Amino acid sequence: MTCTCGAALLEGAKFCGVCGATVAAAAPAPAEPVAPAYQEPSPPVFQEPQPVFPEPPPVYQAPAQPIYQEPVYQQPVYQEPVYQQQPMYQQQVAYQPPVQPAAEAPPPKGSRYAPISAGGYFGYFFLFSIPVIGLILSIVWANDKTGSINRQNLAKLMLVMMLLGVGLAVIAAIFTAVFWSSILGYFQMWTGSIIDLPSFYP
Length: 202
Prior knowledge:
Number of strands: 0
Helix content: 25-40%
Radius of gyration: 75 Å
């Protein structure tokens, strides 16, 4: 088998090694053509020639005249000018100082909330200083719900102070009872040293 370029091809090769052309698959060799039988040509049929007319000359067309269009006048639309609103004048209000709250009037004399004068406080302290009478008055006035509120509070204060004084006295008595012997020894030693002090000076 040979390539179109005349080079010999190997069995089953797809490309020619010389020109690189693709080798078509081997096809069976075509049969030898059979010579066609001779047929006598038929005589030509005469066709009458058709007359040829010259082309008609081109028709001249005059250019179209431009149509004049009258310009349309557009009347301007009147627009009313927009006026800016003037700022409103605000009348200035005169400065008014803040209203001070009215001073509360003191409660009337003889009322439950009437204040106690300085002489009244002096008299109450004098009564509370009496040992038994002061204790009784402080208890009575501390529970008084209709009398002066200031006197009631003062009586409660004096009652609390009396109770604290009694408590401190009791604590002091207990402390003295427990440490009496030590206190007495220290007292005797201190008094003896004072008494014997002139003996050191002849």
